[in-house]
Write a structure and sequence with these properties.
The complex is a heterodimer of chains A (about 120) and B (about 120). Chain A has about 120 residues and is mostly beta strands. Chain A is built from no helices and 12 strands. Chain A is globular and about 45 Å long. By secondary structure, chain B is mostly beta strands. Chain B is built from no helices and 11 strands. Classes of the chains: A mainly beta (about 120), B mainly beta (about 120). Chains A and B meet through strand 5, strand 6 and strand 10 of A and strand 4, strand 5 and strand 10 of B.
Chain lengths: ~120, ~120
């Protein structure tokens, strides 16, 4: 079975400070990992994904995420937070052998960047 | 390019009424799915389809029906609305080929209240 955990419901960061949104996963085999962002009253938008290769993945809006297989983690990071980064962030996973099995999402972490 | 279009954006129903949430995509995506989003629960999969004529149940299918007669459309039917179905509903689509690593594209959502 596939599962994702986002241990923090809410993360507060001052503008200009680095931010981290945590995600851990569980799959039987190797994972494909995704981050999506949801702005107020909008659908989810794709940020970045890890498929294979370099453990550090760079995505949209200056975000990056680091795949750590030994810790089964895929934390989202940004060196300098902006107020406009305030949104709901979802981590998602799929086993690479899963065929048509749907993507499994975490419960989301609300990021609040304070000016 | 419209992407994934959901209608209506808002709906209020009385308990026991039926209705259909519409979802259409113009990207020729084979894979489509319906999620509901509730506070503290994240995204939960209701039903999904890997192509026209093929549907399958997700995590929370009870009280909902789907059909997929065309590649473009994937309507979600509430047969007899209940207050527990008050939620925000999202439709998503992606290419089926190499589904496991494909990005999902989301609609803007339908906010449903059942009184």
């Amino acid at each position: 079975a596939q599962s994702v955990a986002q241990p923090e419901d809410q993360v507060n960061v001052a503008e200009g400070n680095p931010l981290t949104v945590k995600c851990t996963y569980s799959v039987s085999g190797n994972p494909y990992l995704f981050w999506y962002v949801q702005y107020p009253n909008r659908g989810l938008q794709f940020l970045l994904k890890y498929i294979t290769g370099d453990n550090l993945v760079k995505g949209s809006y200056g975000f990056e995420a680091e795949f750590n297989k030994s810790q089964t983690s895929f934390h989202l990071k940004k060196p300098s937070a902006l107020v406009s980064d305030s949104a709901l962030y979802f981590c998602a996973v799929r086993d690479i052998r899963s065929g048509n099995t749907p993507l499994v999402f975490g419960k989301g972490t609300r990021l609040s960047v304070i000016a | 390019n419209a992407g994934v279009t959901q209608t209506p954006k808002f709906q209020v129903l009385k308990t026991g009424q039926s209705m259909t949430l519409q979802c259409a995509q113009d990207m020729n995506h084979e894979y489509m799915s319906w999620y509901r989003q509730d506070p503290g629960m994240g995204l939960r999969l209701i039903h999904y389809s890997v192509g026209a004529g093929i549907t399958d149940q997700g995590e929370v299918p009870n009280g909902y029906n789907v059909s997929r007669s065309t590649t473009e459309d994937f309507p979600l039917r509430l047969l007899s609305a209940a207050p527990s179905q008050t939620s925000v509903y999202f439709c998503a689509s992606s290419r089926r080929q190499t589904l496991a690593k494909n990005i999902q594209y989301f609609g803007a959502g339908t906010r449903l209240s059942v009184l």
